[in-house]
């Protein structure tokens, strides 16, 4: 087992990883930007190294600075968390060349599954159902129109190197397709340094359901059940739960088996996620693979009783998985609400600033993952998420009731947060009945606009 690990990240995930390391008796090194000098993860780590100014590309994406920090502190491994360099194959390769263990999958796996077209081809070869669409990069408007006419509108344009909804556009006709193509290419280039896009059939009324997998370096791969991530805004997840409500045991079994097949097809190691889209007839389609720990991993931990970060570390240290597929059992229900420093009443504009008031819920069935505290300065430079609230109950109804109680206990000020919006979702009858799809939040927002009286 490692004696010291560097966490190449910030915020709540850095805190989460440090906690796992402490439980395992592993010393930790935190890295931070000049804007994060007061960040909570620095107080928890055994050592801390400044890696650059506030801008991400000069700090948390600065590979030479991070490797230098790892070398001067003499760590044996680096945990990338999620975001930043977590799915950067080049970074993983550099770690390997410096004899520093990258806590994640092999570089070739990251590179393969990071290319959405190649990932789709790999999944198809492994026997997974895939959404109809282009089999190569769309180079011009003529190719885009040809594919759209073949598969029929509506279609969705996606970035080859994409994630988080960036470089993604839906189109319903030839006219909007051309504009959407150019916009998606520009967004993809700005976000990922790669403007390549592809096209898929867009099916409305879909649910976004993902399956957590684990693979060790000895060829053993299992899945830990599924999470429902359907509640999202602009393709950014807001609320996640496990298990997915209202799906049949037959579908659950099929998706789990398909996820393991995908993992075996790329000889997967560490924690990873296979993401599916599911229609109202329980047909499911491979969407992508995330080769890292997910933001929403706590809901899986709550229903399985497993610590995914500790398992990641153990796998990276060369240990065999001690869990077999038959050992995995989902008990009860868990739900997670992300708390973002955003103003829901002003189109979710970021709301950075000092947290003069900050109180998170507690009590039976409640878990909070956060790096924030009273008088903490929420930075405008990074992701706006300041906390995750996770609740657990014997069934979905109880988990939701506990979440409603938990959200009522939250005190955040003077900055705005998404807590009030989460409350609205949890009170919505369609959500409570499990009758929601990926356009649920947009429709909620449209309905609210219709209800606002116009001023004459």
Folded structure, characterized:
Acetyl-CoA carboxylase is a heterohexamer of biotin carboxyl carrier protein, biotin carboxylase and the two subunits of carboxyl transferase in a 2:2 complex. Its EC number is 6.3.4.14. Residues 1-446 form the Biotin carboxylation domain. One of its GO terms (molecular function) is biotin carboxylase activity. By secondary structure, this protein is of the alpha+beta class. It contains 15 helices and 22 strands. The protein has three domains: 4-103, Rossmann fold, CATH 3.40.50; 132-201, Dna Ligase, domain 1 (2-Layer Sandwich); 207-449, D-amino Acid Aminotransferase, Chain A, domain 1, CATH 3.30.470. 34% of the residues lie in helices and 25% in strands. The strands form six sheets. The chain has an eight-stranded antiparallel sheet, sandwiched between helices. Strands 3-2-1-4-5 form a five-stranded parallel sheet, with helices on both faces. The longest helix is centred in the middle third of the chain and has 19 residues, at 174-192. The mean pLDDT is 95.
Mean pLDDT: 95
Main structural class? alpha+beta
Global outline: globular
Helix content: 25-40%
Please report which band the strand proportion falls in: under 5%, 5-15%, 15-25%, 25-35%, 35-45% or over 45%.
25-35%
Uncertain parts: none
* Cα separation of the termini: 69 Å
CATH homologous superfamily label of the largest domain: ATP-grasp fold, B domain
CATH topology of the largest domain: D-amino Acid Aminotransferase, Chain A, domain 1
| DSSP E strands, number | 22
Number of helices: 15
| Top-tier CATH class of the largest domain | Alpha Beta
Strand order of the largest sheet: 13-12-9-10-11-14-21-19
Q: Architecture of the largest domain in CATH? A: 2-Layer Sandwich
Number of domains: 3
Task: Compute the CA-based radius of gyration.
Answer: 21 Å
How would you characterize the largest beta sheet? 8 strands, antiparallel
Function: This protein is a component of the acetyl coenzyme A carboxylase complex; first, biotin carboxylase catalyzes the carboxylation of the carrier protein and then the transcarboxylase transfers the carboxyl group to form malonyl-CoA.
Domain ATP-grasp: 120-317
GO molecular function: ATP binding; biotin carboxylase activity; metal ion binding
Catalytic activity: N(6)-biotinyl-L-lysyl-[protein] + hydrogencarbonate + ATP = N(6)-carboxybiotinyl-L-lysyl-[protein] + ADP + phosphate + H(+)
